[in-house]
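pls ignore typos typing on phone
magnesium ion + seq
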Amino acid sequence: MTSISILGSTGSIGCNTLKVVQHLGDIRVVAMAAGRNTHRFAIQIARMQPELVSCLDEARAEALQRELHGLHAKEPRIEVGEAGLVAVATHPEADTVVSATVGAVGFVPTLRAIEAGKRIALANKETLVMAGELMTTAAQRSRAEILPVDSEHNAIHQCLRGERKSEVRRLILTASGGPFRDKSKEEISAATREQALDHPNWKMGEKITIDSATLMNKGLEVIEAKWLFGFEADEISVVVHPQSVVHSMVEMVDGSIIAQIGVTDMRHAIQYALTFPHRRENSTEPLDLAAMSRLDFAEPDLERFPCLGLAYDALRTGGTMPTVLSAANEVGVEAFLAGRITLSEIARINRDTMAAHQPSQVKEIADVLTADTWARGHANFILTGSPAAVSTTN
Ligand code: MG
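k done
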């Protein structure tokens, strides 16, 4: 029987993972960690009965105990904070760790799981963006497999099965274009929180939905693809495909393009990562090919969606620059969700933070964390104009 740990069990990927676990019927959840949704976490714990769980902090651990008591559920071992996340990620009985927290918080726990040789079902793309080299080097050393849960990379993983890397011309990531695909620069700038959160094809968490609206998500995915598959910026292209039926493609040197297509349901990618190298029946509706009237493809517009271009710049610069972009973007997205800035200001914060950064090489965790902290400080400085928020280290 496979045993898994889940980082971020109450989020969109976490909830879908539990649906897959329930469907497959022969996977045990030994440890799980969650953030703010204590009520949902308690219900999940009562159902899955993990041995270990981790909460954001002590206050939430106490609230969780009360919730579990109310549900008459058996209380697992409860830990908190980053140490708790690491304990969940490295639980000795877990073969696979589903890394599904959002943003930089998942970086150290996921790295520890890689070092422990676990299979990683990776949904938390920011970890690879901020520290791709550290993570992939650690994975080579421990022989940990990193299986992408991000639908585009999951598709590419499927397209590359049995192919030689030297015979691949380029990876082609598809982008739905988000809710503002056909909107003008002015309309995008004036977009409300509700409009930005209304993704046409995928139901996801708030951070990734905003990133999809700015195309930052696709930019982060370009960087993620470099680290997962070992291709350079010029060998990774993006094509806008509004139907999101083609999840991504690989173009071979002979011009043949291999695509993976399917329904827009994350349970597919999650199950693929959990059962690889095997495929099993799943519970999603099959794709109805005859019901699709057309598939459209177009070039992305970097003028209206500058975040995608910034991601290519960060990838080409390398070193700490992708870390800085990802951290600045997290600050920008949070500020937008809090109603403090317009949607297009996220790109400005990202660009100005990158412009102020002196990139350096990433050799160890501290290099990543220092760049991350600096970028958050600088992005906050741009937001508030307060120099106190800026760290002196660059
Ligand atoms: Mg994706």
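The first helix runs from residue 12 to 24. The chain has 16 helices and eleven strands. more later
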